[in-house]
Automatic annotation (TrEMBL):
This is Metal ABC transporter ATP-binding protein. Residues 13-232 form the ABC transporter domain. SMART domains: AAA. Gene3D superfamilies: P-loop containing nucleotide triphosphate hydrolases.
Amino acid sequence: MTSTTTTTTRTGATLSRISAGYARQIALHEVSAGFPAGAVTAVVGANGSGKSTALGVLAGIVRPVAGEVERPAGRPALVVQHDTVPALLPITVRETVRMGRWAGRPWRRLSRQDRAVVDQCLARLGVESLAGRRLSALSGGQRQRVLVAQALAQEAGLLLLDEPTAALDVPARETISATLREVADSGVTVVHATHDLAEARRADHCVVLGRGRIVAEGPPAEALSRENLFDAWH
Ligand SMILES: Nc1ncnc2c1ncn2[C@@H]1O[C@H](COP(=O)(O)OP(=O)(O)OP(=O)(O)O)[C@@H](O)[C@H]1O
């Protein structure tokens, strides 16, 4: 079997019978799930259940061995877990967020409009006062907010975030949740992976994974039922 990818404009993203993994490990087994546009979807599951792999497939950085991916047109924005980003990169917070405007052309000169978007994204995540600091001089939670600001600066139709609130204190977590909501309200397909059930219950839509398979999909009140969570975690 082979995999294919197509683009959509308004329907969000879908995975259809996706199988994907790594050299010695199949991480997703025939996974089918929808990620609506203009909504926040939480991908929920235990450690190793395949959440990051599913985000990687949606982002186009993990190639499925079978199945079909549909995603909104344009380059998706992906926020990886902050501890996977080399902390010693010798760049400032502002430079990090500017990279979100490169649009595939590294070090291109940014327009006035690009620079305005960068300033807005720094302010939105409450990191404007850190703009001149080295990324390496930030705490894990501050760095995470900067990475979210970088992804917002891309103004992508598909925003993917791998546990964006895991290292954050309560105010920072609320800032990110509120930002994701606003971004979704503007029509973007927002998908985040989380272990945090309270966070998942605030989403519009949930995809529950267990051992690389779909356990449930739907509104949080249905998808996060006690039975489904038991299945996902056992
Ligand atoms: N780079 C890799 N090379 C080999 N196997 C991998 C790699 N990344 C993940 N895996 C394996 O694929 C499976 C799914 O991992 P994945 O990272 O997608 O899960 P996850 O639900 O995001 O986990 P966590 O909550 O711990 O982040 C696991 O069994 C994991 O060991």
